[in-house]
Design goal:
Blueprint lengths: L3 E4 L5 H12 L9 H9 L9 E6 L2 E14 L4 E12 L8 H15 L4 E5 L11 E2 L5 E2 L9 E5 L10 E4 L6
Parallel strand pairs: 4-5, 7-9
Antiparallel strand pairs: 1-2, 2-3, 3-4, 3-9, 5-8, 6-8
Helix pairs in contact: 1-2
Length: about 180
C-alpha cells in the first residue's frame, strides 16, 4: 500500500481519536483508554509534536503513532528517553505493514531529533522484529507489575543504554 506518513496536525485530532479507539476495541490486553492517554500527552511537557505521526491512505487517516518523553532514573542520574505509546492502525488496515511503516518512520525521526532509546509495554510477538528486547536486559525497571517479556527497550543508537540503569519515570499524564 502506498501510504503517506506525516506529522499529526491539530485538525487531525478527532480522526486520530477514532482511529485509536477502533484500533484497540477488540484488544483483550487493552484498557480501551489509549485515545485518552494521547489527548492528555498532547498537552504535556512530555509531548514532542514531531513524534506524533499519522498514516494516511487516499486522504484518510488510517494509523497513528506517538513517541513521548519519559525518564530513566537511578540514584545518581536521570536520562531523557522516549516511550512508544501507542501505535494504532484501523482494524481493516492491520496486517498490511502500516504499523511497521509508522514505527520505522518514528524511529528515524527520533534519531534525527537526537533521541537514542525507547521503552514500551507491548506484545512480545510484535516488537522484537524492530530490535526491541526485554528492558531487564538493560537493567531497566518499570514502576508497575508487568511480565518482563512485555516490558521492552530499544537502543536507537547502539550502546546508548550501556552503563545506564534504573526505573522508568512516566509523566503524570500516563496515570
Amino acid at each position: 500500500m502506498d501510504v503517506l506518513i506525516r506529522k499529526e496536525h491539530p485538525s487531525d485530532y478527532n480522526r486520530v481519536h477514532d482511529v485509536i479507539e477502533r484500533a484497540f476495541e477488540g484488544d483483550l490486553h487493552s484498557d480501551h483508554t489509549e485515545h485518552e492517554l494521547v489527548a492528555r500527552l498532547r498537552t504535556s511537557t512530555a509531548f514532542i509534536d514531531e513524534l506524533s505521526l499519522v498514516s494516511s491512505y487516499n486522504n484518510l487517516i488510517i494509523g497513528h503513532i506517538l513517541l513521548s518523553k519519559v525518564w530513566l532514573q537511578n540514584n545518581t542520574a536521570t536520562y531523557e528517553i522516549l516511550s512508544l505509546a501507542p501505535v494504532s492502525v484501523l482494524p481493516e488496515y492491520q496486517g498490511k505493514g502500516i504499523g511497521t511503516q509508522l514505527i520505522e518512520t518514528a524511529h528515524e525521526k527520533a534519531v534525527s531529533l537526537g533521541f537514542d532509546s525507547i521503552v514500551l509495554i507491548g506484545h512480545e510477538g510484535f516488537y522484537p522484529r524492530f530490535g526491541y528486547q526485554e528492558a531487564s536486559n538493560f537493567n531497566i525497571k518499570f514502576p508497575f507489575d508487568a511480565p518482563n517479556v512485555n516490558c521492552m527497550a530499544l537502543e536507537l543508537i547502539t550502546g546508548s543504554l550501556s552503563g545506564k540503569s534504573g526505573m522508568i519515570v512516566y509523566p503524570k499524564e500516563f496515570a
